[in-house]
Specification:
The complex is a heterodimer of chains A (about 375) and B (about 600). Chain A is α/β, with parallel strands linked by helices and about 375 residues long. The model of chain A has no long low-confidence stretch (mean pLDDT about 95). With about 600 residues, chain B is an alpha+beta fold. In chain B, the strands form 7 sheets. Chain B has an 8-stranded antiparallel beta sheet. In chain B, strands 20, 21, 22, 23, 24 and 25 form a 6-stranded antiparallel beta sheet that branches. In chain B, strands 2-3-1-4-5 form a 5-stranded mixed beta sheet, with helices on both faces. The termini of chain B are far apart. Classes of the chains: A alpha/beta (about 375), B alpha+beta (about 600). Chains A and B meet through strand 8, helix 8, helix 9, strand 12 and helix 11 of A and helix 12 of B.
């Protein structure tokens, strides 16, 4: 794989603190305590120094958890740690929880060249927000978007959820309309997945039936298109030219740094996962679990990620990376899926058809067999 | 050992009343097994037996007991299986004894199996020693339990030992009563040999081992012996007892319980209930009570991975070495490929074999719904025996069909008579008679098609009587009924492994339940699948499995890859366990779905 010898151009940093815990979340999170966050910052500083990150990163993504759960001083210190590497970034994103953003924090973000914000709106329905365990209201989301714009961060993405317990087609569509009214440049739409180890799982919540979920998804694609948002990935929609550069790197199966407790990275045919325990991370920030990726793993994963893009997977890039066309490893699956009109080739890309796009797992399972 | 100092007995009890625990204590207290070697429930050899708490294969151990009268006694403790499928085996092992220890749990009192087993023991003229167990429990009611035994069974309980098999409390008294109450074996040591075969098993080095009880005469190593029912003759190469390890002896005397080996290749030669006699000086007639056991229930067994067909054959070969009542022959199914049609004594026997194949031989099986043998009379006057619904000829060729009926005797307390009658009626039963046995106990007799019994009759009987009813049944012959083959079609294609033979009057109801059940069990696929039930090409029920609209990971970013990949691998495993029939992938449970029909019928 030719990009393996180079250092990654993309960096993800995970802030595992939250001010409260959401019922559906199984990401790595810890309830925020100032003094724990201080020690965590010291560990992050150590990890970043040891990593010898390239200075000309293309994107940085600060995710969580809740990056804005940190207090102003801590947020400033965190972003200062990244400054040496982010000067030539074309996209610098921070995840924002509506209830935790203040003018001061927005100033700090902007000062460190953050130019994109991903705001966790989730839904416009106050009842569902409470059910999800969110601490914010729709008014908070509106205010947050306003603050960000006031401070010059106007490339804004909103996260929305569907297939929530008690959600109806009507409440979902009106949330969608409310989101669109805020004029975001980008929207992410996630159907609720109830993972083990979440409050929802323990409480026995269920997402809606498959048919309603599919109806909501299809309605969303239609409504967003009417407002000029095109779907460029399974769960992501944007105005022209506003695709997330950072996330597109994942879907194009590029290498990326993963920094901090709970983060994973991929460098040079190796995936690494940080511990999810804050205590362990603070003790030894460089302790990660490595997984060597064999060529067959990488071939599959590139397809698994690439087919999520509407444009599809770059067959030439595949050939360049692995020194063989996709047919060499996946001849059977490719032929079968093309025959079933699930996949097609277009302009040098392998992409899912309209039919295949919504049942991608069925396609990917075929590729697991080679 | 002098014949008058031998005691042959078994322990009988309702399930979980402490039979195996008492056996363990007896082994310990007679120093047969040191505490060090003791594992819980020693007599239940198989993993499956210990887990399910049932005894499937018999076992016999010899113990020596120094009684309070100063004399040394030799005890033979014979274990008994505990299920109606094996009631014949139970009756043969009881026939090998002179007495039975009846264990009743004093927290629960007399239960269904207590009764059934007691009656079996009485049929075999055994001396019964009632024992009240679990008296150390807080909720024990020994006096109530005693009175119940006296009232319901009519056994004198005035000196029944109150014991705790768990702690060993008063178990000594049980041993003493075995000495004083159970008679010594009666037979004549000089008469021609008559030994009852009450079990057999296969040993890879020595061939079939027969477990025998010497009734008359004696046998010794080197004797030429004959199995009277099968006619097979062998030389006794080894004889012995178990304690519970094997001990070889030269002679088995009159009254003894032991085993013999004689390079016997086929278990078919050694039938439970047969009589072993001497070739040179044969007995005039065999001991009473021999019955050849024939399979009553058939089903198809298929490896879910077609490559495992040979493995399945080997496993069945090995199981059959130990189990003369297991029958099988190769068959093929369009839907399931190569497999075997297997015959069993009953549903439990079938379950046990299936579980052993899966556990001990690590096979992943698909089982079709069980069937009985139907007699199909064709218009040309010939008769076919059909044990596989898929083999049922076209309706136009059939003159009429007969199915096996059983006479079912159900022992039930007053409170549940109505429920049992209701159940029997639902199962096409014909009421014959009802008899009051004791205060509060009744025996109800119905004639019921065997096919109705094998589905879920037993489970239903248990649940509608809270476990208080016991069931016994015997085949009474074939009767003409309006039976038809119902086919199930998926995506327009009949799936042979899902066909069933049913009574015409039930076809519509069952057809709808099966199609609805299949709709639940078969996951949505990429296209809509019609599910139909049809008789002779005429569709009587249908439903649709809607096509799959959405199956995609909600989100997938850089850090999610390994976790999401595992999720996909899980989906792949799920798919692998399904059988592709035409273009439809069917999960294994679907092939048993016809069994669940009666559950839904009542909802």
């Amino acid at each position: 794989m030719t990009n393996g010898s180079e250092k990654p151009y993309y960096l993800y940093l995970h802030v595992s603190f939250c001010r409260s815990v959401c019922g559906y979340c199984d990401f790595c999170h810890t309830v925020y305590r100032e003094e724990a966050a201080d020690r965590w910052l010291a560990a992050v500083a150590k990890e970043i120094t040891e990593k010898k990150i390239r200075k000309d990163l293309l994107t940085v993504y600060i995710g969580g958890g809740t990056p804005t759960a940190l207090n102003v001083g801590q947020l400033d210190r965190l972003l200062t740690l990244i400054d040496p590497y982010s000067q030539s970034c074309i996209e610098y994103t921070a995840e924002i929880n509506p209830e935790t953003l203040t003018d001061e924090k927005a100033v700090i973000l902007r000062r460190h060249r953050v130019n994109r914000a991903s705001v966790g709106m989730q839904t416009g329905d106050e009842h569902l927000l409470r059910l999800l365990g969110r601490r914010h209201t729709m008014a908070d989301t509106v205010r947050t978007v306003e603050i960000l714009r006031n401070h010059g961060i106007d490339n804004i993405s909103l996260d929305l959820m569907y297939s929530l317990p008690q959600q109806t087609m009507d409440t979902f569509c009106s949330s969608l309309e409310e989101a669109v009214r805020l004029n975001p440049s980008h929207l992410s739409l996630y159907s609720l997945t109830i993972e083990e180890n979440t409050v929802f799982h323990r409480k026995g919540y269920e997402h809606l039936d498959d048919d309603t979920e599919a109806d909501m998804y299809e309605a969303a694609v239609r409504i967003l298109a009417e407002h000029g948002y095109h779907q460029y990935e399974t769960a992501n929609f944007c105005l022209p030219q506003k695709e997330s550069v950072h996330n597109s790197a994942y879907w194009n199966y590029m290498d990326f740094y993963g920094i901090s407790c709970g983060a994973s990275g991929k460098e040079n045919h190796r995936r690494y996962d940080h511990t999810r325990s804050l205590r362990q991370y603070i003790e030894d920030p460089s302790a990660v679990e490595y997984t060597d990726l064999l060529p067959d793993d990488e071939k599959f994963e590139m397809i698994m990620m690439g087919l999520r893009l509407k444009r599809g997977m770059d067959l030439n890039l595949y050939k360049e990376r692995f020194g063989e066309p996709a047919e060499a490893r996946f001849g059977r699956a490719l032929a079968k899926m093309k025959e079933q009109k699930m996949l097609e080739e277009h302009d040098g890309y392998l992409r899912a058809t309209d039919r295949g796009f919504e049942i991608l797992n069925e396609i990917l399972v075929e590729f697991l067999d080679g | 050992m002098d014949q008058k100092n031998i005691r042959n007995f078994c322990i009988i009890a309702h399930i979980d009343h402490g039979k195996s625990t008492l056996a363990d204590r007896i082994l310990e207290m007679t120093d047969t097994v040191s505490e060090r070697d003791m594992k819980a429930q020693l007599l239940d050899d198989m993993e499956l037996e210990r887990e399910r708490g049932i005894t499937i294969k018999l076992n016999a151990v010899q113990l020596s007991y120094h009684a309070d009268d100063g004399q040394e006694y030799l005890f033979n403790l014979i274990d008994t299986p505990g299920h109606v499928d094996f009631s014949y085996e139970v009756s043969r092992s009881l026939a090998a004894c002179e007495g039975a220890v009846l264990v009743v749990d004093s927290t629960q009192g007399v239960q269904a199996q207590t009764l059934a087993n007691t009656y079996l023991a009485l049929d075999n003229d055994l001396e019964i020693i009632p024992v009240i167990n679990k008296v150390d429990m807080n909720n024990a009611q020994p006096d109530v339990t005693k009175r119940e035994i006296e009232d319901i069974i009519g056994l004198d309980c005035s000196d029944a030992p109150l014991i705790s098999a768990r702690t060993g409390q008063n178990v000594h008294e049980v041993l003493e009563q075995i000495v004083t109450k159970i008679p010594a074996p009666s037979g004549d040591p000089d008469a021609p040999l008559q030994a009852l075969v009450f079990d057999s098993f296969y040993d890879p080095y020595r061939g079939v081992i027969a477990l025998v009880r010497v009734r008359e005469g004696s046998l010794k190593v080197g004797d030429k012996v004959r199995f009277m029912a099968t006619g097979a003759e062998y030389e006794v190469l080894e004889a012995g007892i178990r304690n519970p390890g094997e001990i070889r002896v030269n002679t088995l005397m009159c009254g003894d319980v032991g085993w013999i080996a004689g390079s016997i290749k086929s278990i078919q030669d050694v039938r439970v209930g047969d009589t072993l006699t001497s070739s040179d000086r044969p007995a005039e007639k065999p001991l009473a009570g021999y019955r050849k056991m024939n399979p009553m229930v058939y089903c198809g067994l298929y490896p879910s991975d077609a490559d495992k067909y040979e493995d399945l054959r080997d496993a069945l070969d090995k199981l059959q070495l130990n189990d003369a009542s297991l029958q099988y022959e190769p068959e093929t199914s369009q839907a399931l490929g190569f497999g075997f049609r297997c015959g069993f004594l009953g549903m439990l026997h079938m379950d046990v074999i299936q579980e052993r194949l899966e556990r001990e031989y690590n096979l992943d099986l698909i089982c079709t719904a069980p069937s009985v043998i139907y007699h199909v009379y064709l218009t040309d006057g010939t008769m076919l025996e059909i044990d596989n619904p898929a083999k049922m000829p076209d309706a136009v060729r059939i003159d009429y069909v007969e199915e096996p009926y059983v006479r079912a005797s159900i022992m039930v307390p007053d409170a549940y008579i109505g429920a049992v009658m209701d159940l029997c009626q639902n199962k096409r039963g014909i009421y014959k008679e009802m008899e009051v046995i004791d205060t509060g106990r009744n025996s109800i007799v119905y004639e019921i098609p065997l096919s109705e019994i094998i589905f879920d009759f037993f489970d239903r009987l248990k649940s509608c009587t809270k476990g208080y009813a016991s069931l016994d049944y015997e085949l009474i012959g074939y009767r003409r009924e309006d039976l038809v083959r119902m086919d199930i079609l998926l995506n327009g294609e009949p799936v042979d492994a899902l066909s069933v033979i049913i009574h015409r009057s039930e076809a519509y109801q069952r057809g709808s339940t099966i199609t609805v059940k299949l709709k639940e069990l078969i996951p949505k696929q990429q296209f809509e699948i019609p599910v139909q039930a049809a008789i002779g090409g005429k569709v009587i029920a249908r439903t649709n499995i809607k096509s799959l609209r959405k199956n995609v990971l909600a989100k997938c970013y850089g850090g999610d890859i390994s976790r999401k990949k595992k999720l996909l691998e899980k989906q792949k495993e799920g798919k692998k366990r399904m059988k592709a029939v035409g273009s439809v992938a069917i999960p294994q449970e679907a092939f048993m779905s016809v069994l669940s029909m009666n559950d839904d019928k009542r909802k």
